[in-house]
## 1
Amino acid sequence: MTSSRRWEGLLFVGPFLLLYGVILVFPLFRGAWLSLHRVALFGPGHFVGFENYARLAGDPIFQQSLINTFLVTLMIVPPLTVIALTLALALNRAGRGATMLRGVFFSSAVLSVTIVTLIWRFVLAPDAGALGELWQALGWEPLPFLSDPNLVLPALALTTIWWSLGLPMLLFLAGLQQIPREMYEAAALDGASRWTTFVRITLPALRRTTILVIMLQTAAQLQLFGQSQLLTAGGPSGASRTAVLFLFESAFGRWELGYASAAAEVLFMIILAVTLAQYWATGPGAEGERGFRR
Amino acid sequence: MRRALLAFIVALALGSCGQNDGKTHIYLQRFFGECGAEYGGSTDVAKAEGECGIITTLVNRFNAENPDLHVDVNVVAWPGYPQLAAQMAARDPPDLVTMHAGVISDYAADGLLEPVEPYLKRAGISPSEFTDATRLGVTIGNRVYALPWDTHGGLFHVNTALFEKAGLMRNGKPVLPTSAEEFLQQARRFKQMTGKPYLIQSNVGDPAYAARNQYTYMMAQGAVLFPDPKQIRLDTPVGRQVAAFFRRINEEQLGTLNMDTPAAIAAFVSGEGGIYPTGTWMIGSFEKEAATPGRPLYQHYAVFPYPRLWGTRVEYVSGHAWVVPARKRTAKQQDAIARFFRFMADHNFDWARTGHLPAFRRLLADPRFAALPHRADIAPLAEMGRPLPGYVRRQNAIEGIVGEEMAAGFIGQRPIDVALKQAEKRTNTLLGELN
Amino acid sequence: MASAVDRGRLTPAGYAALGIGALIMLAPIIWTLLLSLKNNAELVGHSEAALHGPYTLENYAAILGNSLTMRWLLNSAIVSLGQTAGVLILASLAGYGFSRLDFPFRRTLFVIVLLGLAVPSQAVILPQHQLFAWLHLHNSYPGLILPGLVAPFGVFFMTTYMRAIPKELDEAALLDGASRWRIFWKVILPLTIPAQSTLAVFTFLGAWNDYWWPLISATRSDMYTLTVGLAASQMNYAQTSGLGFLMAQAIFASIPILIVYIVFQKQIVRAMAGTAIR
C-alpha cells in the first residue's frame, strides 16, 4: 500500500476524531484532573491527590449507591433480554397485526424519562395509584412500592423494563431475519419439533445478537439516573440511589465538583471493566461490539 | 432542497437577533411556572390568581408603568439552581433572580451576589421594614443580599369536619395540642372516634417534611442547630426527644406511613385524615376545595402554624427573595433594579394573596391582609418563623441529608439515635469539605 | 437469501399473552392521554376522574397559547435535525475509514472511540460546560448541536454495517481508477440507506429527549428546547394542581417522535437485519 493511501483513511475519520477529542476526550481528562482536587463549583481548588478516592472508599452512601446500581442492573438485564427475545419470536411474522404490535411494543421507547417516571409514579403509588386501586379491588393491601426499601429497586427495574423493550426487541428481530430459511426447512424435513428447532437452530444463531443486547443493556443500566432521580429521589433513605444520581447530587446539590468527578471516574472504570469482562467471557468475536447508551 | 437549506439558515440567523428599542433592559429569572396562555400581557394584578398569575401580571404592570425600562422574563423549572450555577459559571447571569432564603448564603459566600443595600437605599426601603423572619434570611454577615419577598413555612392544615366528629372543635375552631402529651392524647382520640389517622404525612420523597419537623421542635426548645459554620448538632437530648416523639406517632399509627406528596395531598382533599402538615403554598388549592360544594373539605377547612409542643413558639421557615447576581451593569440598569425593588415592595400585598406570608411588617397589620381567608390565623408565622443562621451553607443539601435520615428514623427503618448520628456525621463531613 | 419469517400460528395462549402484553404497554400511555384531556382542578386528589368526562382541550390550548411553545418546537427541531445530519455525515465518513481503509493507529483509534461508550454523560457534562463557556458557545444552536455529534455509537454502528459490504465492490471500482472519495460517495453510501435511517431515528430520538445539556447550556427562554421549555412552564406542585397540563405536555412532546418512528419503521427493521450479525 502506498503511503498516500495509508493517510487517506485519516482524512475520513479525522473530522469525527477531532470533535471527539475536543468534546469528549478532553473533558474526560479534565474530569479526571478535577478528581484529584478539592474544588467546589465556584472558586479555586487545591490539589489533594487521591484524597477524594480515599473518601469515596469510606463513604457508605457511595457504597450503597454502587450496590444499588449493580442490583438494579441485575434485575433489569436478564428479564429484559428474555422478554425482548420472546416478543421478537412472536412478532417475527408478516401482516398488519404484527406490524402494529411491533409498533405498540416500541412506543414506550420514544418517551422521555420525565414522562415515563410520571406515568409510573401513578401506577406504583400505593394510594390513588393504578396498581393500588387494582390490588384493593382484588381485596389485597396495596404494596408500597415507592416507600419500602425492599420493593423500591424492583419498582425501578419494572419501570425501566417497560421503557426499554424497544431496542432489544428490534435487535432480536433483525437477528431472526438473518437466519436462512433453508435451515428451518431442513429441520422440518427431519421432523424436528418446534421446541427442538428453537433450541438447536434459532438460539445458537442468535448468539451474537444476544451477547450484543446483554452488553448494550448492562452498560446502559449501570448508568441509570433519571428514573432514580424522578421516581423516588433516591429514597427511601438512599435505597434506590444509583451511582450516577450520587455523582449528580455531589456536583449540583453539594457543589463538590472534585468529589463528584472522582465518583464519575470510578463508575467509568467499573462500566469499562464489566463491559470488557463480558466481551472476553463470551469468546472472540468481531472487533469490539459495544453498547448503546441512553 | 435549496429552499429547505435557506429556511434553515434563516432560522439560525433568527436565533441571534438582538434588541434595539431604546429602552433599558434588565433580565429577570424566576420559577413559578408559565401561564402566558391565561394571563398573556394582562396588567390586572387584582384579578390574577396563584403564584404564576400574580407574578406575571406584576411584571407586566411594572413594564407598563415604566415605559423607559423593560424587564425581560426568563422562566425556569423549579428551583432553577442548576441553570443559575451554569449561567454564573459561564459569566452570564441574569439581573434579578428568585432565590430561596436558605440558598443565598452559598452564592453570597462565593461572591456571586451583589449586596443590595445601594438598591434598597435608592428605593427608599429600610431593612427594619422587613419581618424578623425575612430579615434574618437575607442578611449574611452584616450585609443584606436580597430583597425579601415572602415567608413560607409549615402549617397544620385541618379538616374541621373530622375534628368535629372527634369532638375536637370548640367555638368553631379546632382544638390544637399545647404539649407533646396532649398531642398524643388528642391523636389517639381522633383515631378512635373517626377511624382515620390524625396526621397525613408525606414521608416518601419529601425530606423537607421530616427536616422541618426536626428543626422546628429543636429550635423551639432553644437548641442551637448550627453553633458554627462547620457543624450541626442533632444528636443531643433535645434532638432525641423530638425524634422519639415523631417515632411514637408512627409506632402508634397515628399518622400515615407510605405517602409521597401528591398522595398526601390527594388524601387530605378526600377527607382521609385530620391534619396535613404541609405549608403555606397549599393554602390556595385547599381554599378552592373548601369553596367547592360537594367536596369533603367544603366549608370545613382551617389552617394554623405548627402548635407549640415544648419550649417557645418558634418554627423553621424559609422564604423567597430577589437577589442580584454580580456582574457589570450600566447606571441605568442599576436604577431599573432599584425601581423594581420599590415596585415589588409596594405590591407585597398582592403576592401575599398566594398564601405565602408578606415580607413587610406593615402588611401584617393591614386590614386587607387580615381580610384574606385564614390569614388572621397564620399571621403569627411571620414573626415566630426562623430561618437557619446566615453563615450556614449548603442548606438545601443538608436539608436533604437530615430529612432522609430523620424520615428513616421516624418511620422506624432505623433506630433514631443512629439516624441522628448519621445525619450529623454526613452533614459535618459536607461542611468540613468547604473552604 | 430468504429470511426466516415465521409462518406458523401462535397458540391461543400465545395470543392471549401478546394481548396482555400490549395492554400493559399501552395502558399507561392511554392513562396519560385521558389525564391530558381533563381540567386541572377536577384532578386534584381525584386522578381517577380521568376515566369519565367531561373532557376538554384546554391544556393543549394552554400549551399552544404560550407564545414561546412554537419557538421551543422550532429550537428542538433545528437541534435534532442538525445533530442527526451531523452524526450521519461524521459517522458515515468515519465508518468508511475504519471499515475499509488502513491507516496508522487504526485499531487504537477505534478502541478509543469504543471506550467512549462507557463514559456516563453526567461524568463529563460539567467539564464540557466549562469548555463551551470558554468558547462562548452557550445559548446558541452550535452549542446545542455539537455535544451530540461525538456519540460513539454512530461510528460503531456505521463501521459494523459497512464492514458487511463486500470489499470486492471497492476493488472493482479501484480498478476502474476511482478515488476513495468517489467509492465512498457513489458505491458504498447508497448501500447504507437502511443503516442511515436507523441511525437517524435513534439520533433524532436522543436529541429530542435530551434534557440536561440543553438545561445548562441554553439558559435563555428563547433558546430553550421543547423538553426544557415544557419543564419550565410547570408550576410548583404541578403533579397535583397542574396534572392535566403536565400530561398534555408529555403527549405534545411525544407526537413528533412518534411520527418519525412510524415513517421510518420499515427502514429500521430492514437495517437491523443487515447489521447485527456477521
## 2
Amino acid sequence: MSAAWPALLGALAGLGNDLISVFYSMKKYILFLSLLGLSAGLSSCEKYLDVNSNPNNPVVSTPNFLLPNIIANGIQTQMFTALRTPYITQYVVSRTANSGGNDQYVFTNANSTNTFNYSYFYSGGNIPLMIQAAQAEGSPYYVGAGKIMQAVILAHLTDMLGDVPYTEAYQGGANYTPKYDSQQSLYAVINQLCDEGAAEMAKPSSAEFRPLYSLTPSESGDILYKGDVNKWIRLASSLKARQAQHLTKKATYDPKAVLALVDKGFTSSADDAQINFQVAVAPLVNTTNIFGTTRANFGTAVFSTNIVKYLNGTTFPGVTDPRLGILVPSTSQGVNPGAGTSAVSTGLNTAPGSTTYTDFYGSWYARDLGYFEAITYHELKFIEAEAAFRAGDKSRALSALQAGIRAHMTKVGQGGSNALPAVTFPTISQAQINAYLTSAALPQTAADLTTLRPIMEQKYIAMFLNPDSWSDLRRLDFDPSIYVNFVYPTGSGVNSAAATQTDPKLRFPRRLPPGATEVLYNPNAVAKLYSDAGVTVGDINTYITKPLWFDMP
Amino acid sequence: MRKIYWLPVALLPALGTALPGRAQTTPAAAATAGPVTGVVRQASDRTPLPGVNVIVKGTSNGTATGADGRYTLANVPNGATLVFSFVGYEPMERRYEGGPLDITLAPSNRDLDEVVVLAYGIKQDRRDIVTSVQEVSSKDILDSRQPNIVNALQGKVAGVNITSSGGGAGEGASIVIRGGTSLDGDNQPLFVIDGMIMDNSSFQESTAPGGGSAFNGLLGRSVGSANRAGDLNPEDIASMTVLKGPAAAALYGLRAANGAVVITTKKGTAGRTQLNFRSQYSVDEVNRLPQMQSLYGQGSSGFFDATTRSSWGARFAPGQPVYDNLRDFFQKGNSFQNFVNMSGGSDKASFFASASNLKQNGVTPQSTYDKTTVRISGSAQISPKLSVTGSAQYLNSGAVRPLQGPGLFGSSGGFLLSLLNWPRNDNASNYLNPDGSRRRLLALGAGADVDADNPYWTVDKNPQSDRTNRFVGNVQVSFSPLKWLTLSHNIGTDVYTTRSQSVRAVGTSQVNNQFGGLAQTVDQSRLITATTLATLNHNFFGDKLRGTLTLGNTIEENKDEAVDYIGYIFQNPDFIGLNNTVNRGALQRDQTRHLIGNFARLSATVFDQLILEFQARYDQSSTLPRPDEGKIFGKGFLYGSAAAGYEFTKILGLDQNPILNYGKLRASVAEVGRDTGPYRVLAPLTTNTYIGGGFRNDFFGSNPNLRPERTRTYEAGINLQFFKNRLSLDFNYYRSRTNDQLIAPRVSQATGFILQYINGGVVTNEGQEISLSGTPVRTASGFTWDVNANFYHNTNITESLPSPLTVVYQSDTFITDVHEGGAFPGRAISGLAATDFNRVTDPTSPYNGQLIIGANGYPSANATFIYAGNRAPRFTTQLTNTFTYKGLSLTSLLDFRVGGVVVNGNDWYQTVVGTSPRTADRYTTAVFNGVVAQKDASGNTTYVPNTQAVELTQSYYSTILSRAGTAFVEDGSWARLRYVALSYALPQRWLGGTGSFLKGVELTVTGRNLVLLTKYSGADPETASSGAGVRGGGSGGIDYGNIPGTRGVDMAVRVNF
C-alpha cells in the first residue's frame, strides 16, 4: 500500500503537465472556433476537412528518386527467377535425394509469384509515374531509362511466363483483373520500347532539365550506368539482339539482323547491366546476394554434375578450366538431379574447409557482396558467335566465341574473397586464358567449328545462374548433342507428366506456372492461359512442358 | 461550415417564439411550516443513503441527502407530499405532517423510472426509450473485479460478445455488439465518456507506407497488448449504457455504426464530504494448459538426436527424468489494488476526486502490469440558469509482457511455442551458460535459426514493454435561458502518449536480431470532441403530448502521431539503448481525421403511451472524396432513424394489474454510414528499401471514388413487467444489412499495387436478445434473491463479395500454416479457413465426403483453404444470481456459450514437433477410415473402403496430419462460473453507531473463473491470440502461442468515512 502513494503523487504531477499540453492543443481549436465566429465562409469548413493528404509520404516524386528502385527491383526480379531456373538448367540440384522440387521438374504457383509480382508492383508499376514526372519537367533521359527498363522487365517476364499483362497493366483500381497479352505482341512491344528509349537517350544533354545521375546530395538517378547514355543505348541494342536470337526456330529468324544489333551493342564488360550487392544499411534490407549465406536461399542446393564436368577436365579431358575453384569449388564432385548427396555435416560437396555450408556457398556467385548480371558483354559475344555461325561466318563466330570466354574469365578471375564461409578466390592470368583458348576444349580454327556445341556450352558456363540460359536450352530442345552432360532427373519425385512424354524434346520444363497471387486474384486470365496451352486448369505438371511462342517454329 | 456550425443556434430564436413559455406552476405558498429533517436509509442494511433527491411534490423546492443520509428542507407546508427518489431505488412519497421524516428506500427492481443516459448525455426515462439500450450499474462493474471495464461488461448485456485476448497481465479484450457488420473495418463499438469520444484502440499493425511488421517485426500476435479502455478506473464509473443498434447510436454518427458504450462517471453530491477506500489483493493462476505427451524425448525417427528440438526420439527409459517444463514455467500471479475517492460539496458546487493504483505480477515470469489513475470532477451552479461541469483524469499504465506467438519477423517462436517444443528430457529452466550467455539447445546453423529462444531467457532478456500517459478531460457549460430550453457546449479531449519498446537481446533466435535489436514506438494520440446542443422540452395539452427536440453540432479531431525507431547490433551487448546500436532506422506515421456532424433528434410522447423518435445526422468526413468536385476529402452524407414505442398496458388499464403491469412494444428502422481511414484516396509513395533507395509505390492503390459503407437495421422489441415489477422481460429482434463494404482486398499485382481499397460486398446480421430479470424471493426479514439472465443469438452472413473475390481473409489471423480467419460468401465474417484432407467430391458416390486414402495407406492434405467453421458462438446465455440478507451478499455469474469453433494452434504446432498428446499413439497401427480410389473397366473412378493397416509414423504426424488444418479445429462451447463474490457489510453498530466517523466497512471475497467446463482440449477457449485490434471477423477463437486464460481469487475491503 505504502508503495502506491508515491506513484499517485507522481501521477498528480504528470496531470499538471498534461493539462498544460492539452491547453496548448486546445488553443488551436479555440482559435479555430473564434475564427469561425469572426470571419466567414464555408471555406473554413473546407479547410478543416482538407486533411486527407498523407503528411509523411509524398504522392509524387522527382524522377531521379524513382529510377533507382525501377532499376534495382527490375533486376532483382531476375534474381528471384534465378532461385528456380538454375535447377532446370542443371547448374545446381537439390542436396536432398528425390526432393520433389524444381530439379525434378516439379513446380508450384508460388515458384513464379516473385517473378510476376516484382515485375509489376515493385518495379514496372513505378515506370508510368516516373515517365510522367520526367516528361512534365523535361528530362528525356529519364523517359528513355524508363522505357528501356520496361523492355528489360517485360522481356524477362514473358520469356519465363509467356503471356503476361501489359496493355491493361498498371491501372490500379480502374482494372484490377488485367488481361494477358500474347508473347508475340510483347516481343514487338519490347523492340519498340528499346527503340523509343534509345531515341530519348540520343537527345542532347542540353535538353535535360535534370542530370541522369547525381551523387549529390545523395546518390540518385541512373544507378545502373551512372548517367552514361551511350551504355543505355548499347543496352537497348543488346537486349534486342538477345530477343531476336531467341527466335532461331522461326522462319523469320535473320542472323544478319542479329549481328547488326550486336554491332550496336555492348563493347566491353564495363557495359554489363548488373547490380552490385552491398552491405545493408537501414533502411535498406536484403541488399546482399540473393544466392549468398545471408539471404540463405540456396542452403540445400549443391552443384550439379553437369557444370562440374565442364570445369574439372571430365568433359574436356586434360583441360582443367581456370574457373574451377571460382565458379565451383575444386572439391565439388557434382550431383545428379534426384540423386542427392550426404548431409553438409559430413563434409561431402561442401564449401572448402566447411561442414556447415554446402559447396554452392563456396563459389564466386555466392559471395554476399558479389554482383548479379542481367545481360552482359560476354553473353552478347556468344550471341554474336551463334548468329555468325548460323549466318555461315565461322571465323567471326570463332573470334566472338574466344572474346566471350576471355571476357568472362577476365571478369571472374580478379581474385577476391568471401567472408561467410571464408573463401579466397584465385586470380586468372592472361596466360591461363590463352592456354585455355588454345586447349582441346575449343576448336582452334574456323573450319573446326562444325557445330553449335562449343559456342553453346561456353555460353552455358559463362551465363552461370542467369535465367536466360534456360531460353537457350529450350530453343535448342535440350539437345543432348549440344548439352552433353545434361541428364534427365531420376527418382519417384520426377514430374510424371513431363517424364512420360513420348517426344523426348517435350520432356522438359518450357515455362513457369502462373504466379500464386494471379491464381487467386486474376483467375479468369489464368484459366485462359491453361486453355490456350490446351491443358486442364491447374494441371501445372503438364502446363510447364508446353513451349512458349518464341520456342515454337 | 460556419453556417452549419451555427445552425442549431440560429434556429433557437425562431423556435423560442414559436413555443410559448409554459406558465410557472408554483403553488401559492400555503401555511408555511418549519424545515423538515430526516434520514434516508437503504432498506436492506439500514445504512444511510447519500444523494437521495427530496422534493416537495409539484414544486421545484428540493434538496438531496448528505453523505450521512440526512436532509433538511425548508419551507415545506404542512400536508405537502415529499417525494424521495434515487437511481436504483423505488421512489417513495410521504405526506409531511410535522416532525422528522425518516425514510427507508427499497432497491427498485425494474428501474422503469430510472433515467438512462443516451447519446451526448441526453437523459431519458427508461419508460420512454424505444430503441435497444441496456445499462450496467457501478455495482455490477465492481462485482466482476475486472480491472478492465470491457471485461467487466462480460455477461451483463444481451447482444454483446466480449473476448479476452489472453491471460497476460493487463492484456486487452475485444467487444462486438450484435455481430460484426464490416468485412474489413473495426467492428468494435464507439466508447464515449461524459459525452465525448474516447479511444479504445488496441495494437494494430500499421498500414502506413514502410510501416508495420516489415519495419519492426511486431505482429498483433507477438505481444498480448492492451485495449485503451482498460486504462480507466472501474471505481470512477457510475454506469455504462450499451446502445446496441444504429437506431440507438445514429446520433453518434459514422463512428457508432457498431453501437456505442456510453460511460457516465461518478459525480460529487452535495453534503458532508465522504471518503471511500477500497483495497484488494488478488491471486491468479493459469486456468488450463495445453496437454503434452510424456512418453518420448528429443530426437527423430525414434532415436535421440541432439541436432533437433523435436520430440520424435526414443521412449523415455524407466527412471529417466521427464520435466514438466510447461507447468513449471507458469507462476502464481498476484495483484494489489487500492482505490480512494472523495466527494462532497454544497448546493452550488460539488466535487468528486479519486485515485487508484494497481500493481500486478502476471502468471508468466517477469511480466508486470500497473495502472495509476487520478481524477477530479466538479460542477458549479453559477447562476440558476448557468452551470459548468468539468472533469480531468490522468491515467498511467504500463506493462512488461513476454514475446509470444511466432515471435518477430516470423521467427521460430515466442515463449509458449518454445515451451511446447522443448524436449522433456531437458530442463528448460536451466537457461544460461556459465558465462551468462544463452544456453542453446541447438548450435547456430546456416540460414534461419530454428532454435527458438528459451522461454525463461526470452522473458528475462527480450522484454516487450509499454507505458501510456494519458489525460482525459472535458468541460461542459450548460445554459437554460428558458425553462424549456437548454443550450450546452461540451469540449473534451483524450490525449495520450504510448511508448513501447521491444528488446531483442544479443544471441536471440529472432530473425535479423542475432546481434541485438531494439524497436521503439512513440505514439501520441489526440481526440478532441466539441459538441454544441440545444435541447427543447415542451409539454402540450396538459402533458398529453410531451416533446423533446435536440439539435446538435459536433466537431471531432482524431490525430495520431507515431514514430517508430529500430536499431540493430548492440555495441555494448548488455546495454539496452537506441544510441548503443550500429544501424538505426526511423519511420514517421501520422494520421489526422476530421469530422463535422450536424444532427437532430425529436422525441415525442403522446398520452404517455405512444413514444415516437426521429433522428437525422449529416456527417462530413475528411477521409472520403467528392470525385464530382475533384476533391479528395469532405464527402457529406445523411442518415437517420425512426422509432416508435407503444405502452399498450396503459390503454388496457393494466397499470395496477397484479400479473402484467407494464408492457411496451417498440420498433425502429435506422441507417448509419461509416467512413474509411485517412489517406486512402490518393496513394502515397513509400521508401524503396532495396538497393538504390528512393521511392516506390506503396502497397495500396489510389481510389478517388470511395463511398461510405452503409448499414440499415430493422429492430422490434417488447418489454414486459410482471408481478408489480418483480419480473421483467425484454425481447429484441433485429436484422441489419451492411452494403458498399469498404475493403482492401489483394488484387492482381499487374495493377501496380498489392491491395486496393474498394466498395463492395454485403454483410447481414439477424438476431434475438432476451433479458430476463426478477426477484424470485423477497422476504420481510430482508432476504432477497435477484436473478438476471441474458440470452443472445446472432446469425451473421457474408451475403456477397465483390468479384472476383471468393473470400476475404483477415491476414492478421494467419497464425498456423493451415488456418486463417476468413469471410466466405454465405458464411459468417468470423469464419475460419483451413486446409482439409482430400475427400471424395462426387455427389453421386455413396462415399462422398469421405477421406481419400492413398495407395500408401495414408490420407493426404489438400493445400486449398476451405470454410472450416464459425468462430463466433451460436448463442450465449448468462445468469447472474444475487442473494442478499442484511449485510451479506452473494453474487455469481454463470456464463454459457454454445457453438463457435476454436483453432487449437498449439496442438497443431505440437503435432509437428512431436509433443502433442495425440502423438503418444505413434508407432501404433491404424486403418484410416476412408476410401481408396480405383479405375473401373471403363476408366471411371470408383471407390472402395480402405482396409490397409499402416503405422502412425513421425512423418504421418508432421507431414500429413499437420497439413490438414481441419484436424485442429474444435468446439469452443463452454459453461463457466465467471465469478462468485461474497461480501459482508459490517453492521453500523459494530462501527460505533450512526455518529461514528466510520460509515461503513465491507469485506469481499471473489473467485473468478473457478469452474470451466468445456470439451476444448487446449487452454481456455476464450482467447484471441492476434489481439483485440484485428479488424473484420476479429481474432477470437484463435489459440496459438499466447498466455492462457487465468482463474483467481480476490480479497477486498471497502471502508467509507
